[in-house]
Amino acid sequence: MMNTPGIGSTLAIALIHYPVYDKNRQLVATAITNLDLHDIARSSRTFGLDRYYVVTPIKPQQELAERIAHHWREGWGAEYNPKRKSALEIMTVSDNLDDALSDMTQRLGRPPKIVVTGAKGHPGSIRCEAFRELIKDGAGPFLLLFGTGWGMTEEIFARADHVLEPIRGPGEYNHLSVRSAAAIILDRLCGER
Amino acid sequence: MMNTPGIGSTLAIALIHYPVYDKNRQLVATAITNLDLHDIARSSRTFGLDRYYVVTPIKPQQELAERIAHHWREGWGAEYNPKRKSALEIMTVSDNLDDALSDMTQRLGRPPKIVVTGAKGHPGSIRCEAFRELIKDGAGPFLLLFGTGWGMTEEIFARADHVLEPIRGPGEYNHLSVRSAAAIILDRLCGER
Question: Residue B169 and residue A46: Cβ atoms within 8 Å?
Fold first, then answer.
């Protein structure tokens, strides 16, 4: 089953496990979470994205992500649940952000712009609607970054071409899981309207 | 930290572990998934919902859900992560759909209408935008049901006052996790516009 090319075809997503902050704002590499791989792959596939990069420099963590993906792509899981296979086929494990950017440049023939998401407000950030128009107008390709732990480092924000406004409900509480935040933002950018 | 009352204050969500179908359309009770509790509680809290019901008739599964909630509400987790505490405080474990409906009736003084979600199309289903208007216009309260496994049974659909249209991307693939689907639908219904 192939997706028809939508506006997501020049958009990819990256889940950043390093460099991120921990609770005490120390620089850390966070651990792979099984359901981050599945949920974000399924959301990316549903909204027609080009690729989903899982970014970690830790070798045993890379091996873990590859082992999970292998189970569903080629192992017993592929036959048990072909839809899971189809989702995890768009996942690539990368050492670092630059490797993900290079891979995307090679795939699409042009270097992507970096778009950063986060739960905190940021000066000069843009709304999802405005970013949706940029994608539609062919201003991409774009690599959309989501942080783990307590958020991506300032160095990553400094490299961003755009920062997306945080998702808000009616109140002050906005502590979504990264799986939920990614789903909502992909829907706002690529969902049927 | 309190949410200001938004349109979500007459809306609650229920995650149905029974009665649902398995892969071969057999009636089953599915297992509790730790991250379903966390993610859907955090999304519900972010979008100002009144309550999140986890529906399972299996006693050891109810105990598991309560044990996880207790850890974050009152145990070691409450101090470690107060935002998780605040999210899981809106979670209630219920034996069955009728218990969840009764609890909501008692809390809000009026019986809620049942709104069902699913990945398949259904005749007479309504769009999220239309349902958002119904909520705004005070047509509620509403209990919004999400299925696990391979979806809720026909009996549940037959009881629905409304069925929501499935979430669609640009192609045919729409196999989101229940965590992602719930996040997207709550954003469409209660998110800042």
Answer: yes
> Rounded to a whole number, what is the distance in Å from the CA of B20 to chain A's nearest CA?
18
Q: For B3, which of A4, A172, A188 is closest by C-beta distance?
A: A172
Q: Do A43 and B7 touch (CB under 8 A)?
A: no
List of chain A residues whose C-beta atoms are within 8 Å of the C-beta of residue B183: 176, 179-181, 183-184
Name the residue among A46, A186, A190 with its Cβ closest to that of B173: A46
ipTM of the complex: 0.94
For residue B189, give both structure tokens. Answer: 């219904």
| Backbone φ and ψ of B129, nearest 5° | -60, -45
The two three-digit tokens of residue A98, written as one number: 């630059």
Q: A13, A54 in Cβ contact below 8 A?
A: no
Q: Whole-angstrom Cα distance, residue B135 to residue A32?
A: 38
Could you list the beta-strand ranges (E) of chain A: 11-16, 20-21, 27-28, 51-55, 91-94, 113-116, 142-147, 162-163
Q: In chain B, what are the helix, strand and coil shares in percent, each to the nearest 5?
A: 45, 20, 40
Which of A72, A88, A176, A185 is best to mutate for the B interface (most B CBs within 10 A)? A176
- pLDDT digits 0-9 by tens, A86-129: 889 999 999 999 999 999 999 999 999 999 999 888 888 999 99
Q: Per-residue pLDDT tens for A2-53?
A: 444 567 789 999 999 999 999 999 999 999 999 999 999 999 999 999 899 9
CATH fold of B7-190: Alpha/beta knot (3.40.1280)
Average pLDDT of chain B is 92
Is pTM, for the whole model, over 0.90? Answer: yes
Strand ranges for B3-126 from DSSP E: 11-16, 20-21, 27-28, 51-55, 91-94, 113-116
Which candidate in A120, A148, A187, A190 is best for mutational testing of the B interface (most B CBs within 10 A)? A187
Q: What does the pLDDT look like over A135-156, one tens digit per residue?
A: 999 999 999 999 999 999 999 9
